[in-house]
Structure formats: structure tokens, C-alpha cells
Amino acid sequence: MVPKAQPEQEHPQVTSASPLRVPDEPVEKMESVESDGLTELRNLLLAPEQAQLAKLQERLNETEFRAEEVGQVLPEAIRLASSRNRELSTALTPVVEEGIQASVKRDPKILVNAIFPLLGPAIRKAIAATLGTMIQSLNQTLEESFSIQGLKWRIEAFRAGKSFAEVVLLHTLLYRVEQVLLIHKKTGLLLQHVVNTAVPVQDADMVSGMLTAIQDFVHDSFNLKKEEALETMQVGELTVWIEPGPEAVLVGVIRGNAPYQLRSIFQETIESIHRQHGSLLTSFQGNSAAFEICRPDLESCLQVQYASHRKKPTFVPLLVIAGLMLGAVGLWSFLSARSHQRWRLYLERLRAEPGLLVVAAEESWGKYSVSGLRDPLAVDPSKLLKETNIDAAQVISRWQPFQSAVPQFVLARAKSLLNPPGTVTLQFENGILRAVGAAPQEWITESRRLAPFISGVAQFQHHVSVDSDVSQTQSLKKQIEKQAVHFVEGGSQFVPNEEEILQTLVEEVRRMQKAARSLKQTLHLEIRGHTDGSGSEQMNRRLGQRRADRVLQFLVSRGFERAQLAAVSTGTNEPATREITESDRALNRRVTFHVTLMAKAEGRGSRP
Amino acid sequence: MIQKKVCMIGSFAVGKTSLVARFVKSIFSEKYLTTVGAKIDKKIVRLGNQELTLILWDLHGDDEFQKVRTSYLQGSAGYLLVADGTRRVTLDKALLLQKEAEEVLGKIPFVLTLNKSDLAREWEISEGTIEQLEGYGWIVIRTSAKDGQGVEEAFLSLAGKLLEG
Fold first, then answer.
1. Any idea what the CATH number is for the domain that residue B85 is in?
2. Taking CB atoms and an 8 Å limit, are A206 and B55 in contact across chains?
3. Looking at the predicted complex, does its ipTM rise above 0.90?
4. Lower Cβ count inside 10 Å, N or C end of chain A?
5. Which residues of A touch B59 (CB under 8 A)?
């Protein structure tokens, strides 16, 4: 039970506006008495709860207080929620994503710095894996098939009396990292420094500062972007590599030709330093002693690299192959240029050749083809091909026969068809074929019939006289060769009355000489001595000769030129008749004549 | 080993380089100043039982041809503000440069040196001005790179401030 005195007791109010109850206040109205009673009752019953409610209200109104409370339970709440189901992470995902986006938008550097230690290795690993599988098979093939360098080194080692390993080391010193500096990016202060050899080194603290100044200088001078920086300096044999990280840079001073793999070692090192000592770097206040722990990392960069014998050949075969390929390409270019030159020369010669008409010529990948028209009288193209040193097997030639209108071909065709005697000259000009000279009637008739059929001849002009000399010489020749001068038995005296025959002969030969001269020919007279069958062969041969000589002397005495005469003996070989009777034998004892007309030799006229 | 980056800031020809030269033995040529715009020197100072390495960034003086590169200021733990006591204008410039440096580096320790104190007759800066500056809490030291007066003191006071901070 609540005591009576309770209503007078002061109780806490939610607001200061609530009136305080005064104990001696007179009660005048029923209604007010009633309502006062209710309030009183409520107060009596709910006072503690109201106080609690007021407190709660207060806590709800004060956000800071609320935040503090939520903060206290939040980690536990998240832990519980995420262990039960994925609802929380699903709900948070868009928030986190938005947060990341906002962060990148505001300053990408923060996120970049955060993931820097992870990013590099991940990218490198992916690239290396892809490239690795690709290169591996190629390298293996090459390594097994070639090692010219290895062989060369072995020979050198043998000659110099050194071990093979020594020679390899000598040849394969690729690079030496002389010093490595770890520099605090913002202050340019040296964090750690390692040196490989006893090379004279300038004060690393100052070098470090100066390097930083130079980097800043380069960055400012060339308006580089924020993330761009000086990465390499090259001075003679020395290379300075600057590998930047978000808080510190790694600087390597390298002598020789450092391979790019080394750069990745540097990258890995600076990343690993950031990963392991990131907080040391961000809180750096000038105390570099703390970075003593980075020393092993830096020392791992101090590499003296001799190209290992196993690795080196992977370059050598490539070089050899590249060399061979280059050589092959060079040789191929040379050969193809040369054969191209020859082909052009061949075509030029074909085109220059009369009676050959090149219509099409092609050249592709060492194969040639040419087609055109060829006069049968023109030079043989395969002969030209041979002369220009082109392999005939590489050339396809298609020649269609045709008759060229070139004058020399028309003339050649006319000569071969008309077959003019030596006394006739053929000329061809402007489509007109002209025959000049003297010829027997038959030839004149025949040539007139044939000339219109000669291709290229539009007109045939005849200036040929019918040649009487020709007919005369021919008939005289017949007559002379019918003559025979007879001799006494066993001697070289003419039988009686033979002078008449001799006289006739002299006249006939003179006439014939004259006719021959007008035909620009000379006459040759062969005097043949014969005997009868009696007596020995040897004797008869001599007797025949004496008889022929006798006639020759006679003709010379009559003014014939010795050079146009010839005396031969046939002995019994050419009897005029079979010897049965004495008169048969008398007929065989004789001299006969054989006439030859020859084209006149220059400058030698015959005297009658 | 504690190291601190310290910049030398001041107008052209106030004697920054001479101050540094008086204080340390340089390995880099002064050519760097006009080319790169900065020259780095090092001095190890001992304060009580504590050793401190000062990496001194001597910056090319601010003149009409070349501005002080603010990127060179980055990471400084303190700076030496240098003015030529015989040219009042260099002090005004130094005050401007101090403001610029503070924008980049925030409130970090610095010492103002009024150089060429050996040229007493040409002195242009009144005691009142110095007192006024000291009134703001500045450390003002008269130095002479020529006879060495105050040089050590200036660097050591800055070093002391650096260790306090």
C-alpha cells in the first residue's frame, strides 16, 4: 500500500513545465478533484517507469550517446550476423562498393597505396605464367638442337689451358649490382644502404638526397603526371634503377647489362618491404636504425650475375637462327634480284630481235613465262635464253609462228623460194621485190609465177635479161667435154691429123672463156690422160700423165693461163670403150676434158 | 641514427650556400644549384648525448628567374630562413618565403638567420624589427658566413628544435 503522505512528496517530472503539487491547495471543483486524483494515481502507479522512460527518451535524443552504444555492440553484432547467414554481407556490399568508388573518386592514391604490395606480384605472376608456357617449348627445342657457343667456349678453354667453367664465367659476366639504396620517398632520407664491392662510394646520405632532388627536378621539369617518375639513369657502363613504391624507393646502381628479370627482383623487393614494414615507413621520423631489418631484402638485390651456361644457349640458338634467316633472306634477295635482272635482259634482247614479237611476259616467284610471235627465220629464243644464263626449266615459252614484214625476212624468204642464179641479184625495199641481172629464160618465167606468193611482197619488178652467155657456156661445155685427142701406142705423140681437133678445142675453150667472163665466172679445164689396157698399171699411170701434160703444154703454148689448167692421169680407169680389137685400144689412148665454171676471184682476170 | 631533412630558404645572394659551406664540407659542386636547383649536404651534429644527421637541402635562391621548387621542400623537418642583414628587402622576401613554406610544410621548426653580420656599418635591420619577430616566438640569429659568427649556433638551435619536436 502506498502511504497517504505520498502525494505531497515531490517526484521527478519529465519537463520543468509540469506544476509542482502544493499540499495545502483547497479542493473546489469535483472535476478538478477527479482529474487530480487520476494524475495522482498515475503518478503513484507509474512513477518509476516514467523515470525510466524519461531516461530512455534522453538516450534516444542524444545521437552521440547512441552512437557510442551501437559502436560497443557493433563488432559483436556483425560477427554474429555474418556467422549465421550471408544477409549482412549482401546488405553491406553496395555500401562498400559505393565507398570504394567514392574513395577512388576523391583520391585514388589511398587505394592504390593500399593494394600496391598485392598488385605488382599478381600482375607479374599472371604475365609470367602466360609467357612462360609459351617460351618453354621453344627454348627446349632450341637448346637441344644448338649449342654453338658452348662448343666455341670448349675450344677456347682447350687452347688457353683453362677450365671450361673459367671461360664460361669470363664470357658470361652480365652485370653486377654495386649498391642498393632504400630511400624514404617524402624526405629523401636514406633508410638503408648496402654495397657489394669495395667500390669507392660517395656519402650515401647525400647521394640519396641528391637522387631525390633529381627525381623531383625531372618530375617538375617535364610536367610529368603524379604517378610518373624517373626510373632509369644510364651513364656509360653504369645503370641506375629507381624502383618506386608509395612510401620508399629502391635504387640500384648496376654495372654491366642488367637483364629485365633483375628489375622484377627490385620490384618484388620494394613491394615486400612495403608489405612487411609499411607502418614503419609511414611513421618514419628520421630514425633509420629501424630499417636495419630491411638489410637482407636489399642484399638479395646485390647480385653478381654470370649468365649460367644452361641459360645462355637459349639466346645463342636464337641468334644463330636469326643470323641464318638474315643470311637466307639476304641471299634470296640477291639471287632474286640477279635473276630478275637476267630476265629483263632476256626480254630486252627478245624485243630487239627482228622477227620476234613479245606479246606478254610474266615473272612470279622465280617462274617466268613469255609468249609471242616468231618468224621461222628469226633467231631461236632458246639460244638467247642460254646466253642470258637463265634456267630454261624455269621458263615457259609460247611462240606462235608468223611471217614478219621486216625487209630482211622478206628478202630471205624470196631468196629461198626463187633460188636465183648467181647472175641475178634480189633487192627488197618498200614492199617491192626487184630482180636485177641476167638469167636463163626458164628461171625468169618461174620467178614471175612464184613472186606474188612471197609474203610481204607487194610488187615484183623484173630487170633480168635473158642470158645468152649462160646457154652458150652450157652448150660449149658439152661440146668440149665430148672432145678427145688420140695418141700413138705407148707414147705421147698425137696420132696424125689430130691437130685439127686440137685447133677446134682451142677455139671452143676460148669462146667459153669469153662467155664465162661476161657471167663473171672463170673456166677451169681439167685435162685427163687415159691409156689402153696393155702394159703395167704403173706404166699406164705415168703414160696417162705424159699425154695429159702434152695437151696442157700445147694449150699453154697457145696462150692459155697455166693456173686454169690441170693435168691428171686416170690410167686405164676410164676407158672409152671395151678393148676387144686393136681399134678399140686405139680409141682408149686419148685425152679428154672436163670443164668447171667458178665464180670469178677478185682481182684476178684471165688473159686469153 | 636520427636523420632530418633541412632546407635552406632565402632570396638570391643572401649567403645560403656560404653558410652551408661554413658549416659542412661539400661533395657536390655549386653548379647543382643553378642547374638542378638544389644541392645536398650532410652534417652530423651532437646535442648532449644525442647524435643527429642533418641532410641540408641548399635551394636555389628565389629570384625573378627561378621560383623555389616546392617539391624540394617536401619532407623537410625544419628549415633555415636566410636573409641578408645589409638588405632590408631580403628580410621582407624571407617573410614571404616563410609563409609559402608553412603552406607546404605546416608549422615546423625554423630559424631565421640574418647573414653578413660582419658588415655592421651597412646593417639595415633595426633591433626593433628583430625584437618584434622574436616576439612571435621566432628564433633570430645574426650570422656571418665570412667569419663564422653564429653559423654553428644557428644550425644547432634548429637541430635542437628538431629533436624537441
1. 3.40.50.300
2. yes
3. no
4. N
5. none
